[in-house]
Amino acid sequence: MTRNSQESTTGWMMTIPALAVVGTFSLYPALDSFLLSLHRIYLGLPTIGQPYIGLQNYTMLMQDPVAQQAFLVTFGFVLLSTTLEVLLGLSIALVIHETFSGRGWVRAAILIPWAIPTVVASQMWRFIFNDQYGLANLLLFGDQVSNYVPWLASPTWAFLAIVAADVWKTASFAGLLILAGLQVIPDELYDAARLDGATAWQRFRHITLPLIKPALLIALLFRTIDAFRVFDLVFVMTQGGPGDATQVIQFYGYKTLFTEGQMGYGASISIAVFLTLLLLSVLYVRTIGTTLFQREPA
Amino acid sequence: MKKPFLECSLLHVGIILSVIISLVPFFWFIITSLKSQTAVEAIPPTWWPNGNLDAYRSALLDHQLLNYMMNSVIVAGSTTIIALLLAIPAAYALARVRMKGKSLILGGLLSMSMFPQIVIAGPVWEILKHIGGLNTHWGLVLPYLTLTLPLAIWILATFFKELPRELEDAARVDGCTLWQTMSKVMAPLAAPGIFTAAILTFIYAWNEFFFALLILTDPEQQTLPVGIALFQGEFTMPWGELAAASVLATLPLVLVVLLFQRGIISGLSAGAIKG
Q1: Nearest CA-CA partner of A98 in A190, A215, A20
Q2: Strands (DSSP E) along B134-178, which ranges?
């Protein structure tokens, strides 16, 4: 054996254990979900067996008004929360990119929402929006107790409460990704612009913004993928309610699979989520790819 | 260069606002955790705690908080150790060894980290049921490994790629095998990366809720997030105890962030930007 092929064999031996774990508990289950989605399976009714029914689960899904509502709620949630997160993340990144005394402490403070378990953050925000003991009512209405709003009992407010909690929890993560983009911009560009008399806004508009566009898109991509999978917040804060106002698709899938035991139909929901995410990622990656490519010749 | 007044005050407003918004919700829970039951249920709410530790005592004694914590330490700890043992050699090989299809594997790992949990949940549950992994800690560690390995491998591969070739070559010339080069020379050099990957894996496993909820239905086995999500009182919602439990569950993470802020920031951005 030549040294190179020997090395390559050892290389594979180093890689395979990790790949085997990921394959068994990620790749295989994903493929299996697809197969399950072609069958009718009720965990509660083992006697009916697991008949193959082709794409029937998918036609059922297309006509399921609850699923449609769940997709709609999810898209609304993704759109609103990711937009706010990237905008806020940009402000956070601009702030912590500056040098000032105590910056380490400020950065740590901003990281805290990211590090707090989502379940804890959800309980915190559930309490903040509590109709009687909550901080939101206290801040808005003080001791005018009769004006207190039962936020989580209203469809619109409950939806916005979940968006608020998500933005609070993850804007700092978006900020970190954008910060990484800011850090590679050479200071000379700003110094030259200052000498030419460019205002702060002009420097931001014509230097910072074009150069961090890839970082912004990456933050948007990561946040979109994550927001699409939102579950913990909904489980803790609203259980999908009131009505179906905050029932996001991953929560509906969870209920179908594990509360109702519809393993086949639930699998078709999860595959639909997967395909939607895939489509979104491809769209984003193509946009990121082209912007990176356009920058190359310059 | 000195900054003009307007720019400077804008920066200060930004700093103060970001810090306040980041910390206020958590402070509100800390204040709540230090109130007595009657003070928690005062309408309108009171601003200041009346310095009472009953909620902490009750969270620890009546709500089995220590048990949840132990379970979380076991699950997050073993996930971190095993994930690193698997990820370090894999990342080293993928970054440094000449192998066909490397970039395909790295790309595949990245896309797998984007899978929605729900798409693997059903079959993972079936597998675990089959091998007796439901309601066990190792049954939860298995999916956690899958979920954390892609990011850990990416971070580590980024670190290995940036290490100088010369040391590696010298080790090989001296007759070290690939395994020895990795474990004796390269891994110690990549220590900051290993450390970052360890922290991120630990935080992920400590915070994960979806799979913990599916796999652990026995309260004796449940981890902190499940305990806190399903927190219940006998008659009313025990907000004081819940706040106390949440503060205790979060303190280890706050400490980690305060101590290792720099490593976390560079690790997160390395995983994202270079990936």
Answers
A1: A190
A2: none
Other beta carbons less than 10 A from residue A190's beta carbon: 17
CB contact under 8 A, A179 and B213: no
Kindly list the residues from chain B whose CB atom is less than 8 angstroms away from the CB atom of residue A132. 41, 43
Asked whether B243 and B160 are in contact (CB, 8 A), the reply is: no
To 10 degrees, the CA torsion angle through A47, A50, A54, A56?
50
Query: Which of A16, A74, A84, A95 has the most B C-beta neighbours within 10 Å, making it the best mutation to test the interface with B?
Result: A95
Residues 6 or more apart in contact with residue B120 via CB below 8 angstroms: A25, A26, A29, A30, A33, B143, B146
Q: Do A127 and B268 count as a contact with CB atoms less than 8 A apart?
A: no
CB of B138 within 8 Å of a chain A CB? The answer is no
Name chain B contacts of A225, Cβ cutoff 8 Å: 114
**Interface membership of B42 toward A (CB under 8 Å):** yes
Please tell me the predicted confidence (pLDDT) of residue A2.
64
Using CA atoms, how far apart are residues B154 and B270, in angstroms rounded to an integer? 8
B226, closest residue in chain A (CA to CA): A119
Distance from CA of A159 to the nearest CA of B (A): 19
Which range of residues forms the domain containing residue A232? 64-295
B110 interfacial to chain A (CB closer than 8 Å)? no
B112 → closest Cβ in A27, A215, A273? A27
Do the domain assignments include residue A21? no
ipTM: 0.87
Is A270 in contact with B92 (Cβ distance < 8 A)? no
Residues of B in contact with A180 (CB under 8 A): 269-270, 272-273
Q: In angstroms, what separates the C-alpha of A206 from chain B's closest C-alpha?
A: 17
Instruction: Please state whether the peptide bond connecting residue A113 to the residue before it is cis, i.e. omega within 30 degrees of 0.
Output: no
What's the number of domains chain A is made of?
1
* Domain B64-230, CATH number (from 1.10.3720.10, 1.10.1740.10, 2.40.30.100, 1.10.10.10): 1.10.3720.10
DSSP-assigned letter for residue A146? G
The stretches in chain B having pLDDT less than 70 are: 1-4, 269-275
Q: What is the pLDDT along chain A (298 residues), one digit of tens a residue?
A: 566 778 888 888 899 999 999 999 989 999 999 998 998 888 888 778 788 888 888 998 899 999 999 999 999 999 999 999 999 999 999 888 888 888 888 888 888 898 899 999 999 999 999 888 888 888 888 888 888 889 999 999 999 999 999 999 999 889 988 888 888 888 888 888 888 888 888 888 888 888 888 888 888 888 998 899 999 999 999 998 898 899 999 999 999 998 888 888 999 999 999 999 888 878 877 776 555 444 443 3
Model pLDDT, residue B71: 95
Q: Does B125 touch chain A (CB under 8 A)?
A: yes
A29, part of any domain: no
